[in-house]
Amino acid sequence: MSLEFILEETAGRARKGRLSTPHAEIQTPVFMPVGTVASVKAVPQETLEELGAQIILGNTYHLYLRPGVETVRRMGGLHGFMSWNRAILTDSGGFQVFSLSELRKLNEEGVTFRSHLDGSSHFFSPESATEAQIGLGADIIMAFDECTEYPADQTRMRASMELTARWAARSKKYFEEHKHEVPWKSRQPSAASIQERQVTDSTPNAGTSGESGGTDCWPLPPDPSATQSLFGIVQGGMDRALRKESAERTIEIGFPGYAIGGLSVGEPRELTREIVESTLEHLPKDKPRYLMGVGTPDEIVEYAGLGVDMMDCVLPTRAARHGLLFTSEGKVSIKQARYAQDQEPLDPNCDCRVCRRYSRAYLRHLYASNEVLAQVLNTIHNLSFYLDTMRRVRHSISLGEESRFLSGIWSRSKP
Ligand SMILES: [Zn+2]
């Protein structure tokens, strides 16, 4: 079994389901924290487990440059390398390459780019990006696509969408021919990881999330017959007809899951919603739908309400490192002087370890003093807030309270 998606309940267009991957079962809709270089910045893996993170992201572009795919492959893939036993998804590297647009040269074959680390020249194609992702060994990997810039004219959006469709077919062909090369089979749990697991399991707060925590075994190699799953990506810029055509062409190639890419690239939020809503109509109901790179807490609730199953965003972690915290009472900029003597917890309605223990005054002091602990505590809270928000979305869908919950969250999450 490589991937299985079971839709359990729906409420309006919102869906609650279970996505089984080789390393873990995921409750959807799910928010996926971003671990760019095999690390969710400032948060150790055992804390991610405690927070109930079910699946995290790795960025192929960054990992390919450092430490290099071969190093990760020898360690048994990302799971072995970073000692993470739940699910992982890697992007194709396309988005990072294209976001360094001055540094790239693109043709039908692929894209030549310069490393942001040392200026060295590299080449990504659908084949080589898929090869890199097989070496990294995530449970879910992505077809190599071109993320169309915004704004773009009609000719440009069409050409880019068609290139993505041709690259999707090449990504799939390479994947089918090489998927057995995934490095999981050689992975063995280290003594350190077993010890770590025992410590985590005996921690009182471990696994209190109910539905996702407390179910980890120490590193078990997945079913030997399991492989990764390659998802296709729908592009087409901000044009609904092109998005429809892209969806149809991607579905024709055939993937076990479909992503909507090329959004949150600077367009107004109403346009993002319009494109998401119209694209979802053309995606199969029985396959997971992944909206890439969004968004704020109220946006992730909104998109889950439209029928998106998977989302990722750097916002909770990046904002945390800049002292911007999401709470049930709105955004808090912890650097402000008004919090200097505030004895209250950051979010009185949050049960995370930060809100249970520390005052706003202390968090403000840590941030003002540029202490590393500020980044750690701020990130833990923000991730907790996002993951808890999605947990409540799932609960709400199972109760059939879609509209009431969504409007409740909406008003609470407004800045
Ligand atoms: Zn908190």
Q: What do you see in this structure?
A:
There is one protein chain. This protein has 415 residues and is an alpha/beta fold. The chain contains 16 helices and 16 strands. The protein has helices at residues 45-51, 60-65, 69-74, 77-82, 94-99, 126-136, 154-178, 191-202, 240-253, 269-280, 297-306, 315-321, 353-357, 360-368, 372-399, 402-413, and strands at residues 4-11, 14-20, 25-28, 30-32, 55-58, 87-90, 104-106, 111-114, 121-124, 140-142, 229-234, 258-260, 289-291, 310-312, 324-327, 330-333. The strands form four sheets. The protein has an eight-stranded parallel sheet. It has a three-stranded antiparallel sheet with strand order 1-2-3. Helix 6 (126-136) crosses helix 7 (154-178). The longest helix has 28 residues, at 372-399. The protein binds zinc ion. The site of zinc ion (ZN) has 8 residues, from helix 13 and helix 15.
Task: Report a brief summary of the structure.
The protein is α/β, with parallel strands linked by helices and 415 residues long. It has 16 helices and 16 strands.
Biggest sheet strand order reads 4-14-13-12-11-10-6-5
The hetero molecules present are: zinc ion
CA radius of gyration: 21 Å
Q: Give the strand content.
A: 15-25%
The chain-level mean pLDDT equals 90
* Separation of the first and last Cα atoms: 43 Å
Write the layout of secondary structure elements.
Layout lengths: L3 E8 L2 E7 L4 E4 L1 E3 L12 H7 L3 E4 L1 H6 L3 H6 L2 H6 L4 E4 L3 H6 L4 E3 L4 E4 L6 E4 L1 H11 L3 E3 L11 H25 L12 H12 L26 E6 L5 H14 L4 E3 L8 H12 L8 E3 L5 H10 L3 E3 L2 H7 L2 E4 L2 E4 L19 H5 L2 H9 L3 H28 L2 H12 L2
Parallel strand pairs: 4-14, 5-6, 6-10, 10-11, 11-12, 12-13, 13-14
Antiparallel strand pairs: 1-2, 2-3, 7-8, 8-9, 15-16
This protein binds zinc ion.
The site of zinc ion has 8 residues, from α13 and α15.
